[in-house]
Amino acid sequence: ISPPPHHDIYSIEDLKQLIFDLKCANPAAKISVKLVSENGVGTIAAGVAKAKADIIIISGCEGGTGASPQSSIKHAGLPMEMGIAESHQTLVMNNLRGRVRLQTDGQLKTGKDVVIAAMLGAEEFAFATSALIVLGCVMMRKCHVNTCPVGVATQEEELRKRFTGKSDYLVNYFTMLSQEIREIMAEIGISKMDDLIGRADLLTSRSYPDHWKAKTVDVSKLIFMPAEAKVYPLRFMTPQHHDIEGQIDHDLIAISAAAIKNKEKVWASKCITNVDRTVGAMLSGVISKQYGDEGLPEDTINVRFTGSAGQSFGAFMTKGITFRLEGEANDYLGKGLCGGKIIVVPPASSTFVPEENIIVGNTLLYGATSGQVYIRGIAGGRFGVRNSGAHAVVEGAGDHCCEYMTGGRVVVLGKTGRNFAAGMSGGIAYVLDVDGDFDFFCNKGLVELSPLESNDDIKEVQTMISNHLHYTNSSLAERILTNWNDYAAKFVKVIPLEYKKVLEQQKLEALEAKLAMSEDEPHVRY
Description:
Elements: H1 12-25, E1 32-36, H2 41-50, E2 55-59, H3 70-75, H4 80-93, E3 101-105, H5 111-120, E4 124-125, H6 129-134, H7 157-160, H8 167-187, H9 248-255, H10 257-262, E5 266-272, H11 281-291, E6 301-309, E7 321-329, E8 338-345, E9 370-375, E10 388-394, E11 406-412, E12 426-432, H12 438-441, E13 447-451, H13 455-472, H14 475-482, H15 484-487, E14 491-496, H16 497-520
């Protein structure tokens, strides 16, 4: 790149501006979609490529976290080679391969693993298990119970002292891995990785005529080269065009100009469809750029939507924004919510009973850190997954509600699916157990169940339900509050055992500090 005409060399400020401009022109953030290697994954890969995905990850059956059950590790999905081959071939045949990068994982360990994956179509490779082993992991599969004996996956100070891993070990491992890849490429006469991707014609099948089982294996479909490979690209060539010019957020930013500049309250009304995704994220970005984590005062920007919202409605929404949706929403509503407020209610013309019908999709509040969500209706699976600070009220939820939750509060005014609170290590959930069978649906590995007893719990639940009634006009919330004495005994408090200990310790320390302050104050006798 040539330097500016008024300089012989770049100044520091010129370089900073150049880097900023390059980042704006080629943002690092990419849309990444993870797919499990299985029969038919190629069709899914073609769909997400058409939906503007930048990276498609094909995950093999050998992967999984150390907390995964043995049945999942051994029997979920297919080998990485089958998924990556089918995905690559399907994308090539439909002239979609040049738009996306294919990534794969699943127990990649040697240079040969990488070379074969590249020949089958992958151009990015993920390593997890091998890297952990290099750092000292002994695969005890205790990651989820905080008792890792070698200090890799634990918060216990005594166990963490046992960790002996060093960054140099990883550097050595990947250096040797790269060297092995380079040697294999040299043997087959390939000088660049780009020339290796998708070259399944360089692979041959080995025959075992005397083996009773191996002789029946036919891998010809794995190393098949479609005719379109002679015409269409075999690797990533052209970045996706995400068509963000027509996003609703551009209108919202223009409407909210007075609020962003002078913190004046604004109101707006917009129609929304299921192709409008991640609505609110760009608006939140503009606000965060100017005000940081502080955001705007509560309810500064108020937007009423009508229609069916697409994925990630209200994602990463910051403080000061309130979205009210009259309709329904797809998956990932409130993903990464960081202070905003989301209200979802059925259309005024609807005739169905809200608390008996699903109104929002799966995986709501994924990774939310703060904010409020009120949903008049039932949510899909994994409601509140990895929620670490948001407060939410919903009138029913599917399987895995509050999974991996680490903070915040969730009130469920209805039935839940199986595996409630799996991996829940923080936060508190209150569930209205009308049928008395919630104990069967809850995963009690890390949590305890108790009735509403303390005044603090009762006040918290009443406040959240009262807010729910205020924002959604829920007949169910009104019925519960009106007949509180009848419903109070049916609420079940779900709290992680370790989290409960922390809260009790904090209360004790606060009480001791208060007593210490009172002793230090001079006593005046009247």
